[in-house]
Amino acid sequence: MHETLPFLRAVAFPPLRRGRLETVQVNLGYRCNQSCLHCHVAAGPHRREAMDGATVDAVLECLAASGARTLDLTGGAPELNPHFRRLVREARGLGVEVIDRCNLTVLETPGQEDTAEFLAEHGVRIVASLPCYLRENVDAQRGAGVFDASIRVLRRLNALGYGRGGGLVLELVHNPPGPVLPGGQAALEADYRRVLGERHGVVFDRLLVLANMPIRRFGSTLVSRGELEGYLGLLRSAHRPENLEAVMCRSLVSVDWRGHVYDCDFNQMLGLPLRLDGRAPVHVRELAGRTLEGNPIAVAGHCYGCTAGQGSSCGGALSDVA
Hints:
Order of helices and strands: HEHEHEHEHHEHEHHEEHH
Shape: globular
Strand order of the largest sheet: 6-5-4-3-2-1-7-8
CATH topology: TIM Barrel
Largest sheet: 8 strands, mixed
Strand content: 5-15%
Structural class: alpha/beta
CATH architecture: Alpha-Beta Barrel
Distance between the termini: 33 Å
Number of strands: 8
Helix content: 25-40%
Radius of gyration: 19 Å
Number of helices: 11
CATH superfamily: Aldolase class I
């Protein structure tokens, strides 16, 4: 796999500092039932990295002490971690909102037969990856049969009450198929609602639009095709300074499967750690009783992926600019 960090370090990005911590995002491991081309984690069925129980305990202690109100669980497929359900239960017991970043098809794998019901029982917000509303586009990115499996799972979630405005939130995630900026979030959401509703009877609460990050598997593909420089140029040319105020790294920390802390999930995949008192790495257990407000954020060229055009974050577009 081609490394993109040397290219990204050579690209200047405006300095950023942290605000108040609101979200603890946790990567529970890199094992996944899918191997998607755009995956910035390079997750797949053969990955074995997984957060252990002691690190899960440290995450819960951090949540309790920090005042963060959201626990954002990602992977790989976070549901495949053996401590996933305990973490969800105990976080909800702390009054913390829990987000499950779900690829949908994992809910049809052996051992996950009742996971959808578990998520509904605990009021977990589901952020589900569905890069397009058309079968041919999804299967091209994620593998044959993925679209049909995703639709089956979405219908099941709808039957449990997700996406129907009753408190069980279902958000879908779109990302473009290659080195281009995503379309406008509002217009794409209207298209998703129309096509998924009319053709498949699927409903959802909101669409989140994300740009593809030039790192890991996707970044390596760009290097192989000689497209990395052009994509970085596109992101830089579309940079909007006002998006700097809303980027997720100002209010979120990302914790890897070992418990090490980063400013965001993308920095985690690049190995750019959060620095505290001038040192790194920092373990999540060290955050209890500490404030990160005002701490400098590690930046490089990939950060333009979050500020280009309408902006992009784990919460979708940052503005209504198409």
